[in-house]
Automatic annotation (TrEMBL):
Keywords: Isomerase. It comes from Paraglaciecola mesophila. InterPro entries: RmlC-like_jellyroll, RmlC_Cupin_sf. CDD domains: cupin_PMI_type_I_N_bac. It is an enzyme of class 5 (isomerase). The keyword Isomerase applies. Its EC number is 5.3.1.8. This is Putative mannose-6-phosphate isomerase GmuF. GO terms for molecular function: mannose-6-phosphate isomerase activity.
């Protein structure tokens, strides 16, 4: 059996439009925006799409040695110790696997807030919330000032927000936020509870806790009306309001609250560099690193990770297994692989998404 598992595209239906860049990456003949604006990479999570329950969406499928397709989740279960490894003396489980997505927005997404892990466990009886991180990869040329909304800069009271949600007074809701300008290379961490909306024209790698839980408090975007059960996770509005973190994030605190600054972990004379984009001091939910390869980059890692080639191309070598890596390709490296080597003569950048430390 090979060590490295590569993934093919796994597009998922969502409530908003996008995906033209993902079509282009997949070399489709007529790239266009559609209701499939996301690609879930190695996902062990099923999408919750109200009205589409009859369609299994989200789970990544991979070929076995016999050429059959199996859910990646089921493959992991066959040898969990090798694939997921341990943290200290605790075996890692499927719940420790971050959900990683390409997300390509054509329109601003509706306003939403995700539960924290604590909320999911205590109030919903589910193991994981949805703290999420964004690594901005590209923005669309026709969008001159790409942005996201995150955290209330001017928080409403709970009662006020309730009324605006009930009457769908979106201009009042929008007035609680300032646009946060984004550009390729930017990294953000949006903890559960923080209201947010992604602006149009952004291609990002999104890394999150493994769940698809959202309070969607804007019910209509671009003609699509979110069905009632999909608005508040099938709960009442009071439970939905309990999800929110109303504490203010005034404009001067936005960066300190949400923006993450890459830290160089090591660098060598050839120009190989390993940076930490999100680490244990930011969240216990996942870790993100970026390997910039120039020549041969020998690595040692104890944890499993998803690798995503965001720039350039090269190879990944484990013993005598050599895997070609091209831009936009994505793969899983099991915990059982301790030593590996990247190589690129023309330069290659890989985002590595690891479990957190819980
Ligand atoms: O699930 P819908 O409502 O289409 O939301 C779409 C997307 O919103 C973003 O803010 C993220 O939370 C994504 O992970 C999610 O898939």
């Amino acid at each position: 059996m090979k060590h490295i598992i590569k993934f093919t595209a796994n597009r998922v239906w969502r409530t908003y439009q996008g995906g033209k860049l993902l079509d282009t990456i997949e070399k489709k003949s007529n790239p266009e925006d559609s209701s499939f604006p996301e690609d879930w990479i190695g996902s062990t999570v099923e999408a919750r799409n109200v009205g589409r329950e009859h369609i299994s969406e989200g789970l990544a499928m991979v070929p076995t040695d016999e050429g059959q397709l199996v859910a990646f989740r089921d493959l992991l279960k066959q040898n969990q110790g090798y694939f997921l490894g341990h943290e200290g003396d605790k075996a890692r489980t499927l719940e420790d696997i971050p959900l990683v997505k390409y997300l390509d927005s054509a329109t601003r997404l509706h306003f939403q807030a995700h539960p924290t892990r604590e909320f999911a466990q205590q109030r919903l009886g589910l193991p994981r919330g949805k703290t999420e991180a964004y690594v901005i990869l590209e923005t669309r040329e026709e969008v001159s000032e790409p942005y996201i909304y995150a955290g209330f800069q001017r928080p409403p009271s709970r009662e006020q927000l309730k009324e605006w949600i009930e009457t769908q007074d979106i201009s009042s809701i929008e007035a609680c936020f300032d646009r946060i300008a984004v550009k390729p290379g930017d990294v953000f961490l949006i903890p559960g509870g923080r209201p947010h909306a992604l602006g149009e024209g952004i291609l990002m790698l999104e890394i999150m806790e493994p769940s698809d839980l959202a309070v969607r408090f804007e019910f209509e975007r671009c003609g699509y009306v979110i069905p009632e059960p999909a608005r508040f996770m099938n709960q009442g509005i009071e439970t939905a309001l309990d999800v929110f973190d109303f504490s203010p994030v005034p404009p001067e605190q936005v960066d300190a609250e949400f923006r993450c600054h890459p830290k160089v972990l090591n660098t060598d004379a050839q120009g190989n560099t390993l940076e930490e984009l999100i680490g244990a001091q930011d969240t216990s939910c996942f870790t993100i690193r970026r390997a910039s390869v120039s020549g041969i980059f020998s690595r040692e890692e104890e944890a499993f990770f998803f690798g995503v080639v965001t720039q350039g191309s090269g190879t990944l070598r484990i013993g005598d297994e050599v895997v070609e890596l091209k831009q936009w390709e994505r793969f899983f490296c099991p915990a059982g692989v301790r030593e590996f080597e990247y190589e690129s003569t023309s330069g290659m950048s890989i985002l590595e998404c690891y479990p957190g430390n819980t």
